[in-house]
């Protein structure tokens, strides 16, 4: 990851304005001293005219020293010289010296100026910028906020300096790894720049440059390159070689991040040439270019060339090492990795030690992490130490080094959790896990080796903890957060205000993502750019309000913060005692670049298996299996003459992939025994696999599907996002009073863009069987049905919180690029402004449901965008956010008629008291056994999979309210009658 260029704020030299009139004149000052100062100032002016940088700094330092030595009072001359020195030090990358000068100016201003004087704000901004570049981001943010308060109090929000407040806040965010917030803040500063200064100023390039950095941090390479090209056009027109060098440097960083190392190398060499052309061969930015070059060579497997590049970076930074701790640290880490690759461990350790000395301050804090210049940089350092110790353990066959590696990995991942808790945006929280995926993989590998060598069961728990920490943390945080708010006693109106803001934020974020993904390029002045600017302005406002609410909750209700960000992972013994059924086993996967790890937890034992199948091979086989299943239906629905060949080819693809995946993912577990109930926690691409349809044996040629050895024949299979989420979903309170709410919209307009048109629940055309499905379920188990024109989005949303089971039989459409844009369709209302009655994933995040089960009898409700560090962003996940204990979801476009048949079977078995997974298993087996051969194909039944709590649901007929009322009346009458009966009898006998 590259860094923003430190040339953003070129403040006008002096904000002093006739200070002599307000500065007291000391009686001790002599005419000789005044003359000497005047002489030195003239010399300084001469050097400035000649643009002699070294002499300017030397003379300015001499003037400051003269004032201090002779005890002269502060005047215009001294302040002007200090400001000049601050700027010069900053440009040279000597940020500590720059800060010293700015602080001296600020102390005078605070003593002599009003609190709301704009000149104070400018000094705070200068300090903020230097602190950012020195990587004291917390201090930088404090200075920036002070500047903002002063300018807003002085009503100076239309000044040029106000623009840079948001630029610097964005830089603080980018240095802390919160690239999502950085984009918003940089876009805010760009919007202000265009309004206040205009689009024709050459400084516009700085804003484009920094926005590109924020996008690169999110690995949005297309956007990063687009903004860099726009910046390059401006700098080339103004003949600014230094600016062009910066941009070429960052282009090299983008291509390196994409894995295009040769192209990256070319851009970086050209960048270094432009730095030399600008007369800046020893500028810290040159070191950045060498660091990126070194990383390229490491990725290319060229450690010698890498070391040469990193040494070049250190040579550039030799005179400013203490002012450039992060750049020097990066070079040292690179050198350590280069020497590590050559097994020169002594030198590798020495460079990591140097890196630590640079980024850890000696300020008395007990924990090293609390003394880090940059917490994310410190986390990278600890990760590097872990990798080095792991390499040593392998080469030296050292168990102690292996244990040290595991401890370092654990510390590094704890730091990731700390950093992550400080982020506001969901994308940023997810990305940090995704970017550190390789760290989790190596940590798992180290603990697996420790388990093999020591047989110590502590490492089983460590492996399980690592596998859990990398999965669905946003969903867990959301579920815990909702409970934490009420646990902490947060007022309901504050909770609802936050929910409303989160819904608005989700809408704006989705709009931005949609606009970006659908735009081939961003052209200056285009409608798209104006739309993006407006959306980012709205996003900034919403995030500011949201942050204020979150700060209020966390500051006023500390129990909320502790509960929400609790990263404690459920222990395996807890699963055995509270979650795992007697005949069940938990199977959790981790898909690494080089291997796949399988964790198997049973009532009496734990096993860890390492399958030597890479991520790339798994992705290939999963695609082949899905294409094989889906190709069968495409062949039947199409009109080509070679349908039979297509069908056989697809069938063979499916069989081979389904058997391969069984061999790699399930077969290793069978030898040690595999109980009837399998609770599977997939990882990455495995979230798209219907394990039911895996083949335990390859079928004979021409065998009917009823003879296929599907995994479902022997096992009830259910799924969960993670073990801790399984526990959270099981513990969700169910308060819905109604039993079943069925929804079956009608659709009038038929589309023609799909071969499966008219047969599946994904093309928004008419459905023939969704309404009969819901009516059959209602007849069987009761409840309420929204049919045809009643099945509107508004009706569903108003009724859904009151029902324990929600059954939606409709169209669904997954969005593989923008998961939150996947939707369920409802009956369209003429002239509706509600996006044609679509319920999007992003809207589900803010619902409060009381559902024991949500059945999504629609297409593609369990698939969508595969987001690293979080999983598949789908409609099913959206309903999990909303509070559902379990979801029945689909993995592809489902057949309309067979879906109805399967669902009727399913509710019949639920009514008999079977668990959700057992009921679905039996329903599928019925389809396989009782359908003609072509309709027993996995396409027709394997798409439906259960997620979450599989406990049985109560579907026994209830007693109507009027029956209860009648019984009550009869009971009261009986009590009255029998209470009075003795008196009646007495009267009868006496008469």
Write a short abstract of this structure.
This protein has 991 residues and is an alpha/beta fold.
Strand order of the largest sheet: 7-6-8-12-15-16
Strand content: 5-15%
Specify the structural class. alpha/beta
| Overall spatial form | globular
What ranges have pLDDT less than 50 throughout 5 or more consecutive residues? 1-28, 519-524, 637-641, 750-758, 958-963, 981-991
- The helix fraction, in percent, is 55-70%
> How would you describe the oligomerization state of the chains in this entry?
single chain
Radius of gyration (CA) equals 34 Å
CA distance, first residue to last residue = 107 Å
Mean pLDDT, to the nearest integer, reads 83
Number of helices: 37
The largest pleated sheet is described as: 6 strands, mixed
Please tally the β strands and state the result.
16
Descriptive report:
The protein is of the alpha/beta class and 991 residues long. The protein has 37 helices and 16 strands. Helix 2 (53-70) crosses helix 3 (76-91), helix 7 (160-175) packs antiparallel against helix 8 and helix 9 runs parallel beside helix 11 (241-257).
Topology:
Layout: H1 31-50, H2 53-70, H3 76-91, H4 95-112, H5 118-133, H6 137-153, H7 160-175, H8 179-196, H9 204-217, H10 221-237, H11 241-257, H12 261-277, H13 284-299, H14 303-316, H15 325-341, H16 345-359, H17 375-396, H18 399-421, H19 426-435, H20 437-454, H21 458-469, H22 473-487, H23 492-517, H24 527-556, H25 558-564, H26 572-579, E1 584-591, E2 596-601, E3 606-611, H27 615-637, H28 643-665, H29 667-670, E4 677-681, E5 716-719, H30 723-730, E6 738-745, H31 770-781, E7 784-788, H32 793-799, E8 803-809, E9 812-813, E10 823-825, E11 838-840, H33 841-844, E12 853-857, E13 865-867, E14 871-873, H34 875-881, E15 886-890, H35 896-911, H36 916-930, E16 944-948, H37 961-990
Parallel strand pairs: 1-4, 4-5, 6-7, 6-8, 8-12, 12-15
Antiparallel strand pairs: 1-2, 2-3, 9-10, 10-11, 13-14, 15-16
């Amino acid at each position: 990851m590259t860094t923003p260029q430190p040339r953003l704020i070129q403040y006008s030299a002096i904000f002093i304005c006739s200070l002599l009139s307000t500065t007291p004149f000391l009686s001790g000052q002599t005419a000789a001293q005044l003359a000497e100062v005047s002489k030195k100032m003239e010399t300084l002016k001469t050097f400035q005219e000649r643009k002699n940088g070294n002499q300017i700094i030397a003379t300015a330092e001499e003037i400051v020293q003269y004032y201090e030595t002779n005890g002269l009072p502060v005047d215009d001359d001294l302040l002007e010289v200090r400001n000049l020195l601050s700027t010069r030090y900053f440009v040279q990358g000597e940020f500590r010296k720059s800060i010293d000068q700015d602080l001296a100016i600020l102390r005078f201003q605070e003593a002599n100026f009003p609190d709301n004087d704009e000149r104070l704000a400018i000094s705070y901004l200068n300090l903020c910028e230097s602190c950012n570049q020195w990587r004291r981001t917390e201090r930088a943010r404090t200075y920036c906020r002070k500047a903002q308060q002063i300018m807003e109090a002085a009503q100076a929000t239309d000044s040029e300096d106000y623009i840079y407040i948001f630029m610097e806040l964005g830089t603080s965010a980018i240095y802390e790894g919160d690239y999502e917030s950085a984009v918003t803040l940089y876009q805010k500063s760009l919007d202000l720049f265009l309004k206040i200064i205009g689009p024709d100023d050459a400084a516009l390039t700085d804003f484009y440059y920094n926005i590109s950095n924020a996008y690169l941090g999110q690995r949005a390479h297309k956007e990063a390159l687009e903004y860099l090209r726009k910046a390059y056009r401006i700098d080339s027109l103004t003949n600014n070689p230094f600016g062009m060098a910066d941009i070429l440097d960052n282009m090299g960083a983008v291509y390196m991040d994409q894995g295009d190392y040769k192209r990256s190398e070319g851009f970086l060499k050209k960048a270094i040439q432009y730095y030399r052309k600008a007369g800046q061969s020893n500028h810290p930015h040159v070191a950045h270019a060498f660091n990126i070059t070194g990383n390229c060579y490491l990725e290319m497997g060229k450690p010698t060339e890498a070391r040469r590049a990193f040494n070049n970076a250190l040579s550039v930074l030799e005179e400013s090492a203490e002012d450039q701790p992060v750049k020097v640290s990066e070079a040292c880490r690179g050198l350590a990795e280069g020497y590590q690759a050559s097994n020169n461990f002594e030198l590798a350790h020495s460079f990591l030690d140097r890196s630590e000395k640079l980024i850890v301050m000696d300020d008395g804090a007990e924990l090293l992490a609390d003394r880090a210049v940059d917490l994310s940089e410190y986390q990278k350092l600890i990760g590097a130490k872990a990798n080095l110790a792991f390499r040593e353990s392998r080469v030296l066959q050292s168990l102690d080094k292996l244990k040290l590696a595991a401890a370092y990995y654990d510390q590094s991942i704890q730091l990731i959790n700390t950093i992550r808790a400080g982020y506001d945006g969901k994308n940023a929280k997810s990305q940090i896990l995704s970017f550190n995926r390789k760290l989790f993989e190596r940590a798992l590998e180290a603990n697996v080796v420790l388990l093999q060598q020591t047989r110590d069961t502590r490492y089983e728990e460590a492996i399980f903890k690592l596998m859990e920490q990398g999965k669905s943390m946003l969903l867990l945080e959301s579920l815990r957060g909702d409970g934490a708010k009420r646990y902490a006693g947060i007022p309901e109106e504050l909770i609802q205000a936050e929910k409303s803001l989160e819904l608005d934020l989700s809408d704006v974020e989705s709009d931005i993502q949609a606009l970006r993904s659908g735009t081939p390029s961003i052209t200056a002045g285009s409608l798209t750019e104006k739309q993006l600017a407006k959306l980012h302005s709205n996003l900034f406002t919403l995030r500011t309000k949201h942050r204020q609410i979150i700060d209020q909750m966390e500051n006023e209700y500390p129990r909320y913060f502790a509960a929400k960000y609790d990263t404690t992972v459920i222990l395996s013994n807890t699963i055995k005692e509270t979650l795992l059924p007697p005949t069940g086993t938990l199977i959790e996967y981790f898909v690494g670049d080089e291997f796949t790890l399988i964790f198997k937890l049973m009532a009496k034992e734990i096993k860890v298996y390492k399958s030597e199948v890479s991520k790339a091979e798994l992705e290939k086989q999963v695609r082949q299996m899905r294409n094989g299943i889906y190709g069968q239906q495409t062949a039947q629905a199409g009109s080509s003459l070679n349908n039979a060949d297509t069908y056989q080819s697809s069938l063979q693809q499916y069989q081979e992939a389904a058997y391969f995946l069984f061999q790699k993912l399930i077969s290793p577990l069978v030898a040690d025994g595999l109980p009837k109930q399998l609770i599977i926690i997939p990882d990455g691409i495995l979230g798209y696999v219907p394990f039911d349809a895996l083949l335990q044996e390859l079928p004979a040629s021409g065998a009917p599907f009823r003879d296929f050895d599907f995994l479902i024949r022997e096992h009830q299979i259910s799924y969960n996002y993670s073990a801790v989420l399984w526990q959270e979903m099981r513990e969700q309170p169910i308060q819905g009073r109604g039993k079943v709410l069925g929804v079956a919209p009608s659709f009038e307009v038929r589309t023609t863009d799909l071969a499966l048109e008219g047969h599946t629940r994904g093309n928004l055309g008419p459905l023939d069987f969704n309404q009969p499905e819901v009516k059959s379920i209602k007849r069987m188990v009761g409840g309420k049905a929204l049919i045809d024109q009643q099945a509107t989005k508004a009706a569903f949303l108003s009724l859904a919180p009151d029902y324990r089971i929600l059954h939606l039989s409709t169209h669904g459409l997954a969005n593989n690029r923008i998961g939150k844009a996947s939707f369920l369709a409802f009956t369209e209302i003429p002239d509706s402004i509600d996006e044609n009655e679509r319920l999007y994933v992003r809207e589900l995040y803010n619902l409060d449901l009381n559902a024991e089960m949500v059945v999504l009898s629609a297409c593609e409700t369990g698939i969508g965008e595969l987001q690293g560090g979080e999983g598949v962003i789908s409609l099913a996940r959206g309903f999990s956010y909303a509070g559902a204990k379990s979801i029945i979801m689909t993995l592809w476009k489902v057949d309309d008629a067979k879906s109805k048949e399967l669902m009727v079977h399913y509710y019949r078995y639920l009514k008999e008291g079977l668990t959700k997974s057992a009921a679905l298993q039996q329903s599928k087996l019925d389809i396989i056994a009782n359908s003609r051969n072509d309709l027993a194909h996995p396409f027709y039944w394997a798409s439906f999979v259960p997620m979450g709590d599989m406990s049985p649901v109560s579907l026994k007929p209830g007693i109507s309210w009027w029956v209860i009322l009648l019984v009550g009346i009869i009971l009261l009458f009986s009590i009255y009658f029998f209470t009075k009966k003795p008196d009646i009898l007495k009267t009868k006998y006496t008469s």
